[in-house]
Design a protein that fits this description.
Elements (H helix, E strand, L loop, with lengths): L4 E3 L6 H12 L16 E8 L12 E5 L14 E6 L32 H7 L4 H12 L2 E8 L8 E9 L5 E6 L8 H20 L6 E3 L7 E2 L30 E3 L14 H20 L1
Parallel strand pairs: 1-10
Antiparallel strand pairs: 2-5, 2-8, 2-9, 3-4, 4-5, 6-7
Length: about 290
């Protein structure tokens, strides 16, 4: 009888929980790399009111994207990225990005009192009610546009998941402790963010968006994450420099398969779901063949 053990988790968590389980059991870590090379897809978002009505909020969250910067010789000096043209107005923003929508009432542009453009702003700051409020919301919401650019991140060994020494969960099990920094010594992501902001400005210019109706965060320390947690049990041919092989089989334990984006050795710019599915199918086929022997 062959015993096949699987470790898996959802897209957002497997890069954290997979190494946590391995570190707790001291398994599959002869390379010493379990938990290392933690990655995400860092995001820069920009917001504007288009000159014409675009009528977002109909259909999927994202209708199209700009993929011209996913690959090319430029990746020697900066991260590739893809830019999604959002179809949910300004609703995908958060307070920590200094975007129009957040947990506090936004501050309008000093030269344009309508620029903040949220329900809180219209009601609390501008004291609008009734048909005037409805008309203002209709005009504003139909012209909202968000550009969301997610870029790749280099696998940096020091970005890692370890076990907390002094913090346990409700079951007394050590919590995962995360060490993470976005910017690397080569400014790979920072250079990408600079190009992203130039692209966003160009798109807004072509849309005829008034500069007073734009929210672009130039501060390099302010960014968002995609929740695409990758790395930490990386794939490779050499057991000394990786945790699993191309079949997602742990080098140290032939009956242990680790599934999910935690096996990614690099991040590229694409959402990880399709690649996770492809790896899962490859692992399933390997397991099926093993069970027949």
């Amino acid at each position: 009888m062959v015993l096949i053990e699987l470790i898996r988790a959802d897209v957002a968590a497997n890069g954290i929980e997979n190494p946590r389980l391995l570190l707790l059991s001291n398994a599959a870590n002869s390379s010493g790399l379990v938990g290392c090379y933690l990655m995400d897809h860092p995001i820069k978002q920009s917001f504007a009111l288009a000159r014409d009505r675009l009528y977002p909020f109909r259909g999927p969250q994202t209708t199209s994207d700009i993929a011209a910067f996913r690959d090319g010789p430029f990746r020697r000096r900066m991260a590739g990225f893809k830019t999604s043209i959002k179809n949910d107005g300004w609703s995908s923003t958060s307070a920590n990005t200094s975007a129009p929508r957040g947990n506090s009432i936004p501050k309008p542009h000093p030269d344009n009192p309508d620029s903040a453009g949220t329900l809180l702003d219209f009601v609390v700051n501008q004291k609008l009610v009734g048909s005037e409020l409805r008309n203002r919301l209709y005009d504003h919401a139909t012209r909202q546009i968000t550009l969301n650019s997610a870029c790749e991140q280099l696998p940096v060994k020091e970005n890692r998941v370890t076990l907390a020494k002094d913090k346990n969960d409700a079951f007394g099990i050590p919590r995962p402790q995360i060490q993470y920094r976005l910017y690397d010594d080569k400014n790979y992501v920072r250079n990408s963010f600079e190009t992203i902001l130039k692209l966003h400005k160009h798109v807004f210019d072509r849309l005829g968006a008034d500069p007073k109706d734009r929210f672009m965060q130039d501060d390099p320390t302010i960014y968002s994450g995609s929740g695409h947690i990758m790395g930490t049990t990386t794939m490779g041919n050499d057991p000394k420099t990786s945790v699993v092989n191309r079949e997602c089989r742990a080098h140290d334990h032939p009956n242990l398969f680790i599934l999910g984006s935690s096996v990614f050795p690099t991040s590229s710019t694409a959402n990880p779901t399709s690649t996770i599915a492809a790896f899962a199918l490859r692992a399933a086929d390997t397991i099926k063949k093993q069970l027949k022997t």
